[in-house]
Amino acid sequence: MKLEIFTDGGCLGNPGPAAIGVVIKNGAKTVKTMAMSIGQGTNNIAEYTGLIVALQEALILKADEVSIKTDSELMCRQVCGMYAVRHENIKPLFVQVKHLVTGFKSFQITHVPREQNKEADALVRQVLKKAGQDGRSDAYGVGEESPSSKG
After folding, report:
1. Which domain range does residue 25 map to?
2. CATH of residue 84
């Protein structure tokens, strides 16, 4: 089974309250959505955590092919090997991602503009809003990602 998975992570402040959103699709059908608070963290920790949760769920669903769509250019380029992982708090998350992808026959990760990741982004916002925050997109992880990754 081939799944297309949209992941997002965000936080208010950097670090601050953090959340993830995952939308898993099989063709045009949404198979599962997931949204959760991950406590305090940075934007990049939230992005990686969203990817890890998505990959774990894809394995549970017995997918053999996954195509990940993320609006985190930094994470996408790190996972693809184009950028080094320099932050010590991201290295174990990166290692976990690399381990999880070995469970798939085919793995692809693509950077997409935020506009193409609206469903996962909305899930993150809902969780942050429920936590009593305002959920404004301009409060997401300011300062850790390049401007081009913001879509």
Report:
1. 2-132
2. 3.30.420.10
